[in-house]
Amino acid sequence: MARILAPTIKRSLADEIADRLRNAILCGQLAPEEPLREAALSELMGVSRGPVREALSRIEREGLAVVTPTGRTYVARLSRHDLDEVFSLRKALEQLAIERACMYADPKDLAELQSVVDDMAATIARGISEKEAAELDLRFHDIVYQASRHQRLLNYWTTLRPQVYVMMLSRNVASADFRDAAVRGHQDILDTIKSGDKQRARDLIGEHMRVAYDLVSQSYGQPCANPDQD
To answer: Is the alpha carbon torsion for 59, 143, 212, 183 positive or negative?
Structure first.
């Protein structure tokens, strides 16, 4: 019985296709409003249309693709309204996550968080790209969600995360303001998790979200730079 119920790590073809589409959108290979045609993608990838259809449905649920009333699918262009919705939801999720992390984070979680903060300091010292800045920032928050020991909360974050990443790319997250605040802000959050002060942690993450929103919104709507550019 134990062998039957043991977890499997095998990933489906739809998982792989969704990853490829997601990565293409996140790195700018698929531009906003670019059509995502099931038949063309199926032929390009050398797979049947079923897994492609399922993969398109997944990235639509993540907010990275849009389906028109006529059934056409294309890459989403995230608007200022989308930005407001994503960050207001993210703030609520982050505050719950950090409150629980104050209670449940273990030494391994704390060590991983410190490692990310140290990586931020080292990377910023040598010069940081938009992509590196976004990835380090989100890696820190990934660990906070894991430390919350709340699987459904982590699932919601996993769904929202791709939209947050798209919004952060080329949106001032490697600016002088980011460099000045990133290490200090994340170290303060980590120190507060260590202290177990849930209210201060909620206040800090709320301010962190406000600063992040301000940095992202300053240039929102302007053309994206190449996210792979260093």
So the answer is: negative
Kindly report the backbone phi and psi dihedral angles of residue 35, in degrees, each rounded to the nearest multiple of 5, phi listed first: -65, 145
Which of 138, 133, 203 shows the shortest CA–CA distance to 164? 138
Structural domain 12-75, CATH architecture: Orthogonal Bundle (1.10)
Handedness of CA 56, 60, 63, 67 (dihedral sign): positive
Give residue-wise pLDDT tens across range 77-102: 888 888 899 999 999 999 999 999 99
The helix/strand/coil state of 198 is: helix
133 and 174 Cβ atoms separated by less than 8 Å: yes
Choosing among 3.10.20.30, 2.40.30.170, 1.20.120.530, 1.10.3720.10, the CATH entry for 80-218 is 1.20.120.530
CA angle 213, 220, 158 (to 5 degrees): 55
pLDDT digits (tens, 9 = 90+) for 36-65: 999 999 999 999 999 999 999 989 988 889
User: What is the value of pTM for the model shown?
Assistant: 0.75
Domain ranges across the chain: 12-75, 80-218
